[in-house]
């Protein structure tokens, strides 16, 4: 199913490019700006099995997007400036904002040097448990389990299923099936329990992953001192807030902000919802983010920023820079708003 979706998206992006339709749609759907969503920025890997490849782009692709935006005379701004322009309804110039979720070390090592080339700001949303070195990046743990195994067994729907993982294609199919099962479990605790059981059976050190991949508090202090860098919050545990009680969801928001502020000695005013889709962030979460004192909060719902976005500052849409579509030909498609407009049925705002 994910392969089919990827194929359809790629075909849609190419159709917009080759037809030139994005040029016609740009004046209507480019909006006043765009918030780009990234996770990893790092050189490509040669592994045949990379189920999380969509979460990483190469430095050259980021550089190409920045050069493209400069050619369009678009301002590249921080989230504080996005908030200010929306509040003041200052839309004289179009803007772009780059946001990176989770707090990976490669954001410092590979993204920041590229951003410096263009004197361009970036916002990094940190899950405080990841910075603490105690968080669980279950999607990475699952990738490592399946990469190391020729088969895995999981109790799907209460029945132990044995999934083939002998080839890269079989591993990808197994990863997708297990992901779908995990995200359908009743709670994040259930999901984490099953991933931890898999890690134990397949000798994967789940606890070491955050320390390996994510910036520590000491590293974040130095990183945050760079004038181009803004640090935002991404909850404590990277949990699906919509599956939590209101009390727990509020605690995740308020406490993550407080922990980051205490560690970095600077205000944290911007939030990214983990997962960020309709399943993980809705009207309740938007309200809780506002109550927690965040100026803005970003989702993973696709879309550009329009004047109407000023009324939905804790439900802002983003455009993904996705590792599966690192083709410089699609850059003008992404910045035109044509692709997200088609995805959204030509609605400008998705904040319900």
Provide an overview of this structure.
The chain has 352 residues and is α/β, with parallel strands linked by helices. It folds into two domains: 2-133 and 215-343, Glycoside hydrolase/deacetylase (TIM Barrel, Alpha-Beta Barrel), CATH 3.20.20; 138-201, no CATH class. The protein contains 15 helices and twelve strands. The strands form three sheets. Strands 1, 4, 5, 6, 9, 10, 11 and 12 form an eight-stranded parallel sheet that branches. A two-stranded parallel ribbon has the order 2-3. Helix 7 packs antiparallel against helix 8 and helix 12 (246-264) crosses helix 13 (283-291). It is globular, with a radius of gyration of 20 Å. The mean pLDDT is 95.
């Amino acid at each position: 199913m994910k392969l089919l979706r990827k194929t359809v998206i790629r075909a849609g992006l190419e159709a917009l490019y080759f037809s030139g339709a994005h040029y016609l749609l740009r004046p209507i759907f480019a909006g006043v700006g765009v918030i780009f969503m990234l996770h990893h920025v790092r050189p490509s890997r040669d592994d045949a099995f990379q189920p999380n490849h969509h979460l990483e782009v190469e430095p050259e692709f980021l550089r190409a997007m920045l050069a493209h935006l400069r050619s369009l005379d678009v301002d590249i701004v921080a989230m504080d400036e996005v908030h200010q322009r929306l509040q003041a309804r200052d839309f004289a110039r179009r803007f772009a904002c780059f946001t990176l979720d989770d707090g990976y070390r490669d954001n410092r090592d590979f993204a920041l040097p590229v951003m410096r080339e263009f004197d361009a700001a970036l916002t990094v949303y940190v899950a405080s448990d990841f910075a603490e070195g105690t968080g669980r990046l279950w999607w990475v743990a699952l990738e490592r389990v399946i990469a190391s195994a020729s088969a895995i067994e999981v109790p799907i729907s209460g029945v132990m299923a044995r999934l083939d993982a002998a080839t890269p294609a079989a591993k990808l199919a197994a990863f997708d099936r297990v992901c779908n099962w995990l995200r359908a479990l009743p709670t994040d605790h259930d999901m984490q329990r099953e991933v931890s059981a898999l890690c134990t059976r397949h000798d994967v050190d789940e606890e070491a992953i955050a320390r390996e991949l994510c910036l520590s508090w000491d590293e974040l202090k130095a990183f945050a001192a760079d004038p181009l860098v803004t640090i935002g919050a991404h909850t404590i545990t990277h949990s699906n807030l919509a599956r939590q009680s209101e009390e727990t969801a509020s605690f995740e928001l308020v406490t993550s902000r407080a922990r980051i502020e205490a560690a970095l000695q600077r205000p944290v005013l911007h939030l990214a919802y983990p997962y960020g889709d309709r399943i993980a962030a809705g009207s309740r979460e938007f309200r809780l983010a506002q109550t927690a004192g965040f100026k803005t909060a970003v989702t993973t719902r696709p879309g550009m920023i329009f004047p109407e976005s000023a009324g939905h500052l804790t439900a802002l849409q983003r455009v993904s820079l996705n590792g599966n579509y690192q083709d410089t030909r699609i850059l003008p498609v992404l910045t035109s708003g044509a692709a997200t407009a088609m995805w959204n049925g030509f609605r400008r705002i998705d904040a319900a």
